[in-house]
Amino acid sequence: MEFDGWLTIGTIGGVLVMLARSRVNADTALLGGLGVLILLGVVPAGQAFAGFGNEGLATVAVLFVVATGLRETGVSTVFVQRLLGQTTRVMPAQVRTMLPTGVLSAFLNNTPVVALLMPVIHDWARRNQVPASKLLIPLSYASILGGMCTLVGTSTNLIINGMILDAGMQSTSMFTITMLGLPCALLGLVYLTVVGRRLLPDRRSAASSLADAREYTLEMVVEPGGAVDGKTIEEAGLRRLEGAFLAEVSRNGDILTAVRRNQRLLGNDQLVFVGVVESMVDLNRFPGLQPATNQVFKLDSPRRDRVLVEAVVSNLCPLIGRSIRDGRFRSFYDAVVIGVSRNGERVESRIGDIVLQPGDTLLLEAHQSFMDSRRDSRDFYLVSRVDDLRPPRYEKRWVSVGILGLMVGTVAAGLLTMFQGALVAAMLMIATKCCSEAAARRSIDWRLLVAIGAALGLGKAMLVSGAAGAIADLIIGLAGSHPFWVLFAVYGVTMLFTELVTNNAAAVLVFPIAQASAAAMQVDPMPFYMVLMVAASASFITPIGYQTNLMVYGPGGYRFTDFTRIGLPLSLMIWVVATLLAPMIWPF
Prior knowledge:
Number of helices: 24
Shape: elongated
Number of strands: 10
Oligomer: single chain
Distance between the termini: 28 Å
Radius of gyration: 27 Å
Strand order of the largest sheet: 3-2-4-1-5
Helix content: 40-55%
Structural class: alpha+beta
């Protein structure tokens, strides 16, 4: 191996050490390493940055927009809530968490899937009194396992497919990897259900407790024909709300105060909830429920541009001593009162009938500009933003589902490439208002894209410097002359790189090694490429190897060793199964 090869190996080794020690972000380390190799003349700038034009990378970018359209229209929320149901037992909760996650991750990039499902599952766990730590690692692992099953399931598969195209081979289809990925995924799900669930810790994150003791009264109405209409309180998921309870139901003027769990809800029923502010936010996003006050719909701004605000009434407020209705609060402040707390306790009265007093804490729905215009107002002692209201656009959910089906169908039928199908779907999501242009721009993880593009450049440097060929020769020498053991070794190297850095970086770094190994042994490279797809995705041993593991690390209250204890046996099993099956499906 020439000097350039040693420079490349040394530089990439330094990048791996920095990433393993978490000293710098992945995009910074990878781009910095690529910059060093460009400055040293190991790889020309044109070839180094060619990875940013990779079709797989572009596909990842537009799939973020598709996932945002599904999230913005509430498809993920409704999908998960209907499948998870109501249970307080851990095993059914884990199974109901993993199955929908695996299915979604097979057709959407798994990082956005976890991003949009994690808060939904976390809230569901809280409502059903199931520890979130029992569900969030299964959520991440199920997304990884599901992502193995199709070309679009993970960015790794798309990146490797792009490199296969660059190598002059025919593109893999949507379900080429399914023959290998599905058995591995089923094995993983069975392991997590039977064995892994016993190894999961019972912990709560630091932010999981409800520290705010202010109680509000919130009035909601059952949307006719909505997700709650016709269900019992138990079936609707309104029986065990953490930090809130359903105090009464009003139907055609009759008040039901002793609300039973088997009480069936009907369209236009008015529900009165009592609870803390966090639960009020959750109820405003609950599918099938709408604010009972028609004042909400009289605000000038659309609901998607509004936020929830807490405001403490001062003794100088001109509406002191008047009811919210008689004082025309909405017209006066261009905001609607949806909850009132007095001395930390709820006010037992209809919202419109409550007479304002100094010190009352109001939960308001208002335009985002309310914060700026009223923060220094003498009418309020304190104005603080609670959260974005942004209710999902449920009326668009079937449109977004249709767009997703169109994308999957046209790609599976070979009418469009994966990039073309994703691009059409992303444009349709914006054109049909399933997501806004601003939300689409915010959804793209630019740091992830930079990391992928830089890692592709490092992979190119390994090729042009001769480092990939030298490592391949070393692997062949250590593994023996039989292609199976070389395949086994390629998987092991990929798994190691995946756990130390990221799945995408591991894929692009090992791809030239796998390519050179197959060429040196004069065998079909297909089993090497397919094993590489599985190995680069199957990151279960550490939280730093895969972005979804990092996403659930904090909210689940996990420790680093939790991932190792659960993930190491799983990784070893998939290593053996994948390397045994691949040559059977794609003979050497």
